[in-house]
Design a protein that fits this description.
Blueprint: E1 3-4, H1 37-40, H2 45-70, E2 88-92, E3 98-102, H3 123-135, E4 154-155, E5 178-179, E6 186-188, E7 213-217, E8 219-220, H4 231-234, E9 240-241, H5 244-248, H6 290-300, E10 308-309, E11 314-315, E12 325-332, H7 339-354, E13 360-367, H8 379-389, E14 398-401, H9 403-409, H10 435-443, E15 449-454, E16 458-459, H11 463-475, H12 482-486, H13 492-495, H14 498-512, H15 530-533, E17 561-563, E18 568-569, E19 591-592, E20 598-601, H16 602-616, H17 620-625, E21 629-630, E22 645-646, H18 649-653, E23 667-668
Parallel strand pairs: 12-13, 12-15, 13-14
Antiparallel strand pairs: 1-5, 2-3, 4-8, 6-7, 7-9, 10-11, 15-20, 16-23, 17-20, 18-19, 21-22
Helix pairs in contact: 6-7, 10-16
């Protein structure tokens, strides 16, 4: 394959001479040489020629010197940035390996960053810079540009030189070599199903099967490895990447409404995108009914799953069949449905439900914000609200709830509140976001687990792979020191292997003098729930006192809760809502994970439901889409519209561009704005 060096790229390393984080270094004024007009305009032709040549030479010298000092090449609209040394400090991580910590040169001038000393920076400005660095110390670190190289820089995982972690090269690294051609995407199939899985279709006539997702083999050169967490540990592939068309092309990105698409992505660079429609053609989504498609898929695969016992209204516990999982997407009246939101939820339903043969089922749980709407009055009122707020293709998936409904479900006085910083009502979405999910679980006993999901989350990879691998990994985790491990971030460059991380947690727990958590905790005022009264333990047999190996306690047991952020102890955490608890005689033991996206088991939600009613009667996105975006680099950390505009159709179509962004599977949240026309 032919290749060339990307010396003239307008990619991340081909910057103009403009200020970068954390603040601008204001260069001194260059004094202009005084030229005598009489000499230049004198009568001697030879004198004029020599003088002009001398002047041109001086100007060229000045430009050359200035370009070298600023670290950029000369004579190009967007030159390649010269790699300058960055100050480092070498430290040892917890498993004895050396790690280079970058501590200095953020703007590429080869100097440690300090408060600039010159006549253009006032004392107040110096104080502001110092305050910003004190408040946001991460601004001292150089930027990683490896995320922003395109399709023409893709290399195999074996040949990848990640920009982070990297103890030999300093970030940002030089632009990588580019191929002359855009690679061809391949089908991406993360499913491992047997022959008993029946094909599911988008239409009732069973002529249009759910489409395949596509991916590129390899990743763009210098793609950083994760700073927190591990693809390999969770079983997620990190040797492929997805561009906008391989990810969303199968669901309507890149073609017109007349063809059944969404008129989205037509204004972006699109070379090679035809490969994702080579087998299926451009699918017409105009008349797709996702509720019918999911129901037909489940019926075709019903033989694979546990069924609800009609007498107990609970799933059969003795069945060796598979339990199903609901993905409950939390929305509200007035939510702005964009074309990109539609694409995202088409992908979510197709990949999780239809392509899995009914293993997952997607629902929308919509909050009716108008408390005067009688959502329980009749089906016509319900349908009117749904029709006014949800696109036609998703309307059959929607259930409604409101705060007045929660007061009916959980009536009575809840007792004293320890603290209520928000001042919000206990039945509202802000303080009790799980009340509606508890009611939903009570009304849907056919599911074993429930993912609580948010409208502004996007996964740039296969949704099935993401959800499935999280569940499988969590199932293999032992209960011993589970709470303590779950309270921390796992940082591979610092902790080393997961085993080393686990040992570190154990050592720190012993050194702290605090007893580790094992099973349900007792506390003052704790009341028994039904399973306590009936003598039923929440602990599996592998945790019993006579178990042969207590280190295996909980291994093979489905997790009751999976969160995407650490579950930390709120006591003395400094978190503003740490003491927001209501209805207990004394503060109970509490754990919290910021962001409500999580998977909860049915038995956990039913315990939460009983606990409440029984006793009282928790930039990159738009750039990837192909729109030019400000890179957010400035002395305030990207606020106030700081930075330089990068990306977009003009840049991606430039012959020297590395092409569309191609990213590994990653969860992006929150997505508040999707198009450049919206507020940045």
């Amino acid at each position: 394959m032919a290749a060339r060096n990307n010396n003239n790229s307008r990619g991340p390393s081909g910057r103009k001479i403009d200020p970068l984080l954390p603040y601008s270094i204001i260069s001194e004024k260059t004094k202009k040489p005084r030229l005598r007009m009489r000499s230049l305009m004198g009568p001697c032709h030879a004198r004029r020629v020599l003088t002009w040549l001398f002047g041109v030479a001086v100007l060229i010298t000045l430009v050359f010197v200035k370009s070298r000092n600023s670290g950029y090449s000369v004579g190009k609209m967007s030159g390649t940035k010269t790699q300058q040394p960055i100050a480092t400090a070498t430290v040892l991580n917890t498993h004895g390996e050396t790690v280079v910590m970058l501590t200095g040169d953020m703007d590429g001038d080869g100097k440690l960053e300090t408060v600039p000393e010159n006549e253009y920076v006032t004392a107040d400005e110096k104080k502001e810079v110092a305050a910003q660095l004190e408040k946001m110390p991460w601004l001292r670190f150089p930027h990683l540009d490896g995320y922003f190289h395109g399709l023409r820089t893709i290399v195999s995982k074996a040949n990848l030189v990640p920009e982070y972690p990297n103890i030999t090269d300093k970030a940002p690294m030089p632009s990588p070599t580019m191929s002359d051609h855009v690679p061809k995407p391949q089908k991406y199939i993360p499913y491992d199903h047997g022959s008993d899985v029946k094909t599911c279709y988008l239409d009732s006539k069973k002529t249009v099967p759910a489409p395949d997702l596509y991916a590129y083999n390899g990743v763009p050169q210098h793609m950083p490895d994760p700073a927190i967490g591990s693809y390999k540990l969770l079983g997620l592939r990190d040797d492929v990447c997805f561009d906008r068309f391989s990810r969303y092309g199968p669901y309507g990105l890149g073609y017109s409404r007349a063809q059944g698409g969404l008129d989205t992505g037509l204004d972006t660079e699109a070379s090679g995108n035809e490969h994702v429609w080579a087998e299926t053609g451009k699918i017409n989504y105009i008349d797709v009914n996702w509720a019918d498609a999911q129901e037909d898929c489940y019926k075709a695969n019903k033989h694979r799953f546990k069924q609800v016992n009609p007498d107990t209204q609970e799933l059969s516990e003795t069945s060796d069949k598979k339990g199903r999982i609901a993905v409950v997407v939390r929305t509200y009246t007035g939510f702005k449905w964009t074309e990109l939101a539609v694409l995202n939820f088409r992908a979510l339903i197709s990949e999780l439900s239809l392509r899995s043969g009914g293993e997952y089922q997607v629902h929308f749980l919509m909050q009716v914000r108008n408390i005067d709407e009688p959502i329980w009055s009749d089906k016509w009122t319900v349908q009117r609200i749904i029709n006014d707020n949800v696109p036609a293709e998703f309307r059959g998936l929607v259930s409604l709830w409101s705060e007045p409904q929660m007061r009916l479900m959980y009536p009575g006085r809840f007792g004293e509140t320890i603290e209520n910083p928000s001042g919000a009502d206990i039945h509202g979405i802000y303080r009790s976001a799980h009340f509606p999910l508890q009611v939903f679980a009570m009304q849907h006993p056919e599911y074993e687990h429930y993912w609580n999901w948010e409208m502004d989350m996007r996964y740039l990879g296969s949704y099935y792979e993401f959800f499935d691998r999280l569940g499988k990994w969590a199932k293999e985790q032992p209960r011993t020191l589970l709470w303590e491990r779950s309270a921390r971030y796992y940082i591979p460059p610092y902790h080393g292997t997961w085993e080393n991380f686990s040992q570190t947690v154990q050592q720190d727990t012993l050194a702290s003098g605090r007893a580790p958590i094992f099973g349900p905790l007792s506390f003052e005022g704790k009341e028994q729930l039904r399973h306590d009264e009936w003598g039923q333990s929440m602990m599996p047999p592998s945790c019993s006192s006579d178990a042969p190996d207590r280190s295996k306690c909980g291994v093979g047991e489905e997790a009751d809760i999976i969160t995407l952020n650490p579950l930390f102890d709120t006591e003395q955490s400094g978190w503003v809502f740490s003491d927001d608890a209501t209805g207990y005689k004394a503060p109970p033991p509490r754990r919290c994970a910021i962001i409500t996206a999580s998977r909860l088991s049915r038995r956990l939600l039913m315990s939460m439901h009983e606990e409440v009613w029984r006793e009282f009667a928790g930039l990159m996105w738009r750039r990837w889409l192909g729109y030019a975006q400000l890179d957010g680099r400035g002395k305030h950390g990207g606020r106030a519209n700081e930075g330089r505009e990068r990306g977009g159709k003009t840049e991606e179509m430039n012959e020297n561009s590395s092409g569309r962004l191609c990213l590994r599977g990653m969860l992006v949240h929150p997505i508040k704005f999707e198009h450049p026309s919206e507020k940045p």
